[in-house]
Amino acid sequence: MLFSRHHDLVRMLVSRNLKIRYKGSALGFLWSLLTPLAMILIYAVFAGVLGMKRQLLGISGGASVAYLPFLVTGIVVWQFTAGTLSDSLHAIAGNANLVKKVYFPRAILPVSTALANAVNFLLTFAILLVYLAASGALRPAAALWLLPAAALQLALCLGTALLVSTLNVFFRDTEHIVGLLLLAWFFMTPVMYETSLQTDAAARFSWFPASLHGLVFLNPMTGILALYRHALLGMDLVPAGIAPAWLLLSPAAVLLVCVLGATALRIGDRTFGDVL
Description:
Elements: H1 2-21, H2 31-49, E1 56-58, E2 64-66, H3 67-87, H4 96-101, H5 108-135, H6 146-170, H7 174-188, H8 195-203, H9 220-233, H10 249-268, H11 272-275
Antiparallel strand pairs: 1-2
């Protein structure tokens, strides 16, 4: 309903957000292609310096995947979520004049921010696919898992965009808190390491039952990254010894974030104009 009635406004705002991202730059949208290429080169250099470039990670069937494709995949996927979260902070607060002068569903503002980041992610993802194919790491046998992975991540980005954009209207410290939370979330998410390291860490606490190690998937990005790496690199969805059903915690967490975001915006919408 939101898009059917206001699709022109959504399209205009998405286009505006994309143009603002590269405003004043000589290369414009080419940065969407150059940035991931530069990132891959930088990580390749440092992975080589640290002796991790040829490190192999085991996957099902006795095959293996090099650490660099594993890392780059995680970074590219993570940046979509982190970028959306950062950009959506000012989706409502930064459009005070529009909010106070024109009536429209306020959800359009954070939604358009998330969609603009999704467009940028698609360009980056295309470069990722080329790199994985060129490096021989791409294993497309389970490529259909990209659909639930992308759907879950987009839903997570939409939910977090609604939530933080609303909170930042009423609590301006939200911007600083989100910066700290993003840093903590990054290290709590298996971007640079395998999910099995999280479950192994949990096993060090004797008081923590082994039957609950799958709770690591309460972090929605843990499940989302597992889906992407399964689809692209052929890695297992869950670590050895963890029941696959635990993976369902990530979609449940995404649903909770979406509900919280929608609820926060519905409540805050009543006083956005007064506060801004």
